[in-house]
Design brief:
about 180 residues, alpha+beta, three-stranded antiparallel beta sheet, binds zinc ion
């Protein structure tokens, strides 16, 4: 088990674009180890998702999924999956928002509106190609994580800067589901 340090907002690496992983490297030992470290790091931090740049690796790799989160007890479980070189196409205008958090912006959350229906293309860890329509809360989580690959944080997308603050201060405020 290798829990890696999670970079926090302000670190310039979080603002860089990540490079696609060459097809010939997807099944390499290096990538397998990176995936294991990312799950270990995400689980240790009780997160719902983690993008490679959050541990300082500028590669297009995201892991998501959890059975139950202590940080977000109301969030439904999400199947564990590994997303490599994703491409996202929006299928719906954002009409709904939710409170999001991020392991790179610890202790805080903010209200963000995103499309609830997307088409995502990606490779998994076995080099299998996926092309699927994803809806609802899962679509929010994937967009949040894939934003990290473009150097974008959810705070860039706040609906209103006033709808942003520390978790404790926002307790009692509309605490919907949050993503990481
Ligand atoms: Zn995040």
């Amino acid at each position: 088990m290798a829990v890696r340090k999670i970079l926090r907002a302000g670190d310039p690496l979080l603002r860089k674009k990540s490079a696609p992983i060459p097809q010939t490297e997807i099944r390499s030992k290096e990538i397998k180890k990176l995936i294991r470290d990312m799950f270990d790091t995400m689980d240790d931090a009780d997160g719902l998702g983690l993008a490679a740049p959050q541990i300082g690796v500028l590669k297009q790799l995201v892991v998501v999924g959890f059975d139950r989160s202590e940080r977000y007890p109301d969030a439904p479980g999400m199947q564990r999956s590994i997303v490599i070189n994703p491409e996202i196409e929006t299928l719906e205008d954002p009409t709904e928002g939710s409170w999001e958090g991020c392991l790179s912006v610890p202790g805080m959350r903010g209200y963000v509106e995103r499309p609830r229906k997307i088409r995502m293309k990606w490779f998994d860890e076995n080099e299998d190609f996926h092309d699927e329509v994803i809806e609802g809360y899962d679509a929010v989580v994937y967009q949040h994580e894939c934003d990290h690959l473009d150097g974008v944080l959810y705070v860039d997308r706040l609906k209103d800067p006033r709808l942003f603050g520390f978790n404790e201060e926002l307790e009692g405020a509309s605490a919907e589901r949050a993503s990481v």
